[in-house]
Amino acid sequence: MSAPYPVDPTKSVPPGGPPAPGWGMPGSAPPYPTQPVAPYPMQPHPVEPPPPYSAQPAFAPHPTFAPQPGAYPQPVLNASSGGCPIQPGPGARGTPGMNTGFPKNDAEALPEHFGASFSDKAIRHAFIRKVYLILMAQLLVTLCFVCLFTFHSGVRRFVHQNFVVYMLSYAVFLVTYLTLVCCSGVRRKWPGNFIMLGIFTLSLSYLAGAIASYHDTEIVVMTVGITCAICLCLTLFATQTKYDFTGCGIYLFVAAMVLFIFGIIAIFTYSRILYTVYSAGIALLFSMYLVFDTQMIVGGRKHEMSPEEHIFGALVLYLDVINIFIALLYIFGGKQ
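Predicted structure:
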């Protein structure tokens, strides 16, 4: 039910007649006076003057660069399908074909330096095992030659009567040694590297056996035992010491040149004392070379041998041991 119209109480209403117009009714005047119009005219807003500087030109892309594409297009919602579009993003763990940002396996989750360090140690240990297995085979062959030439009188007599075979073995030794040392492709390519190393081992074993055949059996046996003890002690020292001998290669080379010149002088003097001093110098030099080469093979020092040089590593160690053995033979059996 609506509220009644307001009625002016100053006006009488005849009985039965229409009500007098009140406030808000048509034809009735408002009870408040009309406000006069403002006596001052309305002024328009003044126009601002133009800026004192010229307008900047619109941005234009550099002529050498093509305009870059805009934002990636977003899929439009298909209202008729009643579903929402699938936004591209990282997939769940293990989803094929999608970059999830998670490591695929345990190896990928490990730090990069950890795997490299473990791999280097494994490769170095395999290299050391291979070098010393080859060295043991070489020393076993040489020991067989020395024992045969020392204990078998017929073989000893053959060696003493055929000096040409000794010189031929020396020539083969020099050729194979220089080939393996100077040609890296030969000593790294299988099976040629093992064939060359086998020829080198046989020739040097014949030389060592021929030299041993000129000495008494007791001297040879004693020298073999002393050589084994010296090489074992030097190998343990090289692997356990904190001193790094891999930077002494140039000094060892100079010492070798000095001993080479001294040996030439000793040949023409025919002095037993000079022979003994020269043999002691050779034994000391190759003992130092054994420490140097062992640290180069084991690694972990300033300089180390490449894991691909297992033939070269076995060659230098074998040469060190044989030279120590021959030098000790000259020291203990100088009269022969």
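Summary: Residues 125-332 form one domain.
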